[in-house]
Amino acid sequence: MAKKPLPIYVLNGPNLNLLGLREPEIYGRTTLNEIGKMVAKQAKTHGLSVVFRQSNHEGELIDWVQEARTKSAGMILNGGAYTHTSLALHDALRALDKPLVEIHLSNPFAREEFRHHSYISSLAKGVIVGFGAGSYLLAVDALASLLEGPAA
Length: 152
Ligand code: CA2
Prior knowledge:
This protein is α/β, with parallel strands linked by helices. The protein has 5 helices and 5 strands; from the N terminus they run E-H-H-E-H-E-H-E-E-H.
């Protein structure tokens, strides 16, 4: 029997559980739960399944990145503020060895200077920022094409 393809992991960092509830002018009105459903639908069009998670805890995110080494086909990561601070997340991602797409709802480069550096970008195949919830859907398409392409 053919083996089931591995899911893509979509991981979300701290405070993203508040999406749609606070600061809609920056992050939009769509909740994380709604984004999870949109992502699953978009992934299905590529024949992909999704593990969609959020944590406010750095260590839990790192545990999931480590889990994804063997249990995922690739990863979409919105690291939230840990993007700009976490060397530990960077080190975990170094060992991922699967295609990684970094995303942000907002455009960090159009915001405060402390958001301009990312500990994730140097390890990502690509970075998608500034399209609100659309960043997640663009990332699904991008990751799917990476997984389908010859260089996957
Ligand atoms: O734009 C993004 O996706 C960010 O990753 C969001 C992070 C921020 O620290 C990054 O610089 C860019 C913050 C997530 C906080 O999410 C909230 C959502 C609603 C209300 C309050 C916070």
